[in-house]
Amino acid sequence: MEWIRNLMLPAQGSVFAGEVDNVYMGLFWLSAVLFLGITVAAIYFAWRFKYKPGRVTPHITHNNTLEIVWTVLPLLLCVGIFFWGLKGWMEYAVAPGEAMEIQVTARKWNWAFEYPDGSRDAGTLHVVVNKPVKMIMTSEDVIHDFFVPDMRVKHDIIPGRYTEVWFTPTVMGKHVVTCAEYCGKGHSDMRATVVVESQADFDNYIATGGTEWEDYKTHMADWGKIQWERKGCNSCHTLDGTRSKGPSWKGIWHKMEKMRDGSTVLVDEPYIKESENMPQAKIVDGFEPIMPTFQGLIKPHDFEGIVALIQSLQQ
Amino acid sequence: MEYQVMTMGAQTGSRPRPKKNYLNETHGFWSWAGTLDHKRIGIMYLVGTLSAFLLGGCFALLVRLTLMTPTHTFFGSKTPILTAEQYNRVFTLHGAIMVFLFIIPSVPAALGNFVLPLMLGAKDVAFPRLNLASFYLWVVGALMAVLSMVLGAVDTGWTFYTPYSTTTDGPVTLMTAAVFVLGFSSIFTGLNFIATTHKLRAPGMGWFDLPLFVWGIYSTAIIQVLATPVLGITLVLLMLERSFGIGIFDPRIGGDPVLFQHFFWFYSHPAVYIMILPGMAIISELVPTFSHKTIFGYRAIAYASVSLALVSFIVWGHHMFVAGQSQLATVIFSALTFLVAIPSGVKVFNWLGTMYQGNIVLDTPMLYAIAFLILFTIGGLTGIFLGTLSTDVHLTDTYFVVAHFHFVMMGGTVTAFLGGLHYWWPKMTGRMYSEKWGRTACVLYTIGFNMTFLTQFFLGSKGMPRRYYNYLDQFQPLHAFSTVGSWVLGLSLFMTLAYLLASLRKPMDAPDNPWGGTTLEWQCSSPPITHNFEEQPVVEREPYDYRPLKHA
Amino acid sequence: MSTSSVDLHEGHGHGEHADPHFQHHFTTMEQQFDTSKLGMWLFLATEILLFGGLFVGFGLMQARYPQEFVEAHEHLTRWQGALNTVVLLFSSWTMVMAVDAAKKNKRQTSARFLIVTIVCAFVFLVVKYFEYAHKFEEGWLPGKFYHGEGDAIPGSHGYATFFAFYFMMTGLHGIHIVAGIGLLSWILMRTKRGEFSSAYYTPVDLVGLYWHIVDMIWIYLFPLYYLIQ
Known about the structure:
The complex is a heterotrimer.
Chain A: H1 2-8, H2 15-48, H3 64-93, E1 100-107, E2 110-114, E3 120-122, E4 124-128, E5 133-139, E6 144-148, E7 153-157, E8 163-167, E9 173-179, E10 191-197, H4 199-208, H5 220-230, E11 256-258, E12 264-266, H6 269-277, H7 300-312
Parallel strand pairs in A: 1-5, 4-10
Antiparallel strand pairs in A: 1-2, 2-3, 5-8, 6-7, 6-9, 9-10, 11-12
Helix pairs in contact in A: 2-3, 5-7
Chain B: H1 29-33, H2 38-66, H3 84-120, H4 128-150, H5 164-167, H6 172-199, H7 212-244, H8 257-291, H9 298-311, H10 327-355, H11 364-387, H12 389-395, H13 399-429, H14 435-461, H15 476-503, E1 536-539
Helix pairs in contact in B: 2-3, 2-4, 2-15, 3-4, 3-6, 3-7, 3-8, 3-13, 4-6, 6-7, 7-8, 7-9, 8-9, 8-10, 8-11, 8-13, 9-10, 10-11, 11-13, 11-14, 13-14, 14-15
Chain C: E1 3-6, H1 29-64, H2 66-73, H3 78-103, H4 107-138, H5 158-192, H6 202-227
């Protein structure tokens, strides 16, 4: 019955996913049986007891035994289901002691991650396959939510507080993280990627920012485009000239850009670096000062890629 | 077609139609605007709430149209139908209008106002002037809401979660003030119905002689009176947080955003029972009448209604399993949520038990009742997925929840509302609508509804979050299918509006009791005279008694 | 249900239809009176729930900022709060006496007690005015307007939140007092016009109930704000 499960649920990416899917499928079959029972009964009765003039219906006001049975049995069923759900949930609620802790900061409309060694990244979360990892999360502004469908985990991220969620990934590859608490204009663009990899690849990533960029050495603009998506730049900056919450990157390289305070600035590498780290320092005319800082979140090769991308977007 | 009613004796068709009824006895704007007649007030509410339904429905169609393609364009156009900011406002308004302007008042204030005193054998509700005041409060609240739309509309979601709602631009204070006013409209309606049920029953009508519609409306009224004030104060706190920075919900000034959610859901969970109980109350009328058989398990249904009202107050935390409430609270709320499932199930079994060995007529109201049984069952069963802790973690805040609540609110309440509207149409207007069109629209409605919303369970379980403007390409086929479903659904409702309005052009020739109902409203003329009954009815038989009378 | 019909004029006294206050969807004056009372109690239940939300909010914020709440409440003048409590309690007694007099056809007595009740309400508001004025002077204002001096934990939001709740709850209560003055004045006018008697004194009774609830809410507010250690 795998295909029915696959119709309804995403790929299983964590240990917890297996538990959730078992309960989900169990409830699905139970619901299917009850639903069919009730629907078939309703339709059958409507047909079988169709109106005949003159027919007198029996005066059945109640049946204590039957009513008690169909109250108590569902109640017992519900108690059972409650405990089944509780069992799985308790696994979700308590992280194992050895879980690697990752600090997650959510803000409108992107993600920042910090690893135990202090290194940081935006938009991509690297974790080791088959090792538990725990997110310690807070928000800089409104309530967000960390949701990884493949892992079947989700928890709200609240400003002024820390909340936690954990999982043990079991399948290597990339999985989507998606914000699941409405947070305004960019809510549906607020995505991140969980990269599940071997310990060796993970260690390499932590040490050097990873080797993925090396595949793009000769065409760094393409690497830049990947960073544009992963780090969440795309939630405010387009590449095709369309105006969004921030200026489009098309055609800005080496342009003399007019700022809100009336000054003009050349769009070069130092300017882009400054915008990354201190976005409020210079605001392009016609836009609001809403860009969050990416200080410490963009590794050198990733920054190179972004500059290459902007350079490539000439008119 | 007039069915032979075994129990009515010589009543049916033998009384001459009164020349003056509540519709034509007085004329002119002020005879309606200043009326104290519960029937006229009910009609005004009907027009108002159905207008709100139309507006909210158009917003829904717009939402679905925007979600049809990932680029939000349509038929090769270049510009998106809505921008992200506009989309956020449209889905917020869809929710707020449907919840506060349509569903909560619909059955109680529109149908209930009309039918309740008739069912009790009374001349009016306990406080007719308060009834009119309730209606005017609804109108004021509606105007304030419309004004807020004109002034830029809110984009907070109908749930107004903080700190987004305390910091976003837009007429949030005006919109929440509108909801505050609408809340008092609801409170006064509930207060009126409780007093009416307690004090204005016909001689001989004890509590267990009441029609089950009354039990349902009464249970609803309890919730309206006890829960709505808490929403009122929550909204006041929200408004003051925005304007005075009191520091209760915004963490930057020392507040707790989760506290807002507790306050909000403390009302809003019981509120969903304000929405479903009246719907169930209608089904309890339709099923025995169209089965020509006594209701199975009268007392169980009556007790189930009241217990739903009471238990609804202790499960609000099931909206907050992943919101940051304590783990203990989470576990307790899940356990209590399973409790609240049982009375609803009992009612469904009792309705089926009524149909068993009945003598069933499949007129439009009964078709809606059967649709209710099927759709509400799906809605209720999917609630179990959400009340179960481990599955809720995955499913909450996704389209699964959106599908679940549309199944219970629309597949449940709106379906029942439509059934009740057709059932009492001849009583309210004195005309019969076209059965052929009625049945066609009902079938189309059921198909369109399932196309739209069944699809959304799969969207949700596959990981599509709610309130999303952009989505991953893999979700597009399901979104497109759901949108097409919304067109079928919309068409069926426009069809219904059309043939119901068309029926008003026919002469008033509906019989007093076209369906063979046993409750008191079928004892007066269709439409009723202003004072309802020529003579005070006295109750001498059990409710829903379809046993043939022994003629003397 | 089959029905038989009953002559509408059976079963109640002949006086009913003569009474100008009789509403015809009722069958007897007694039924009308009982129903009105039930309606008023239901309304008062909603009032309790309305204030209840604020009480709960206050309790939760107090748990969040225990030290600041204790310190802030020292700024409230106990004798003024106590005076207001005595004034309201007294006014509840005069209200009871007014209802009782109306029931016994003692129009003048009833009017006098109503007047005293209204005067008490005004005294309450005047005392409140002085309390509020002092707080405005000192900068003990709600929320973002707070600028009190000499706090033990400067910069903490607890003080602003305390005063936010103080003004919200006493303010909402004050609005109900003002509404009460309006209602009492209306009842006073109708009493003077001779509208009430032993046969019909419902509005006096109902306004009395309202007044008692307003008093009762103050009875909870006073210790909560002024006396908590």
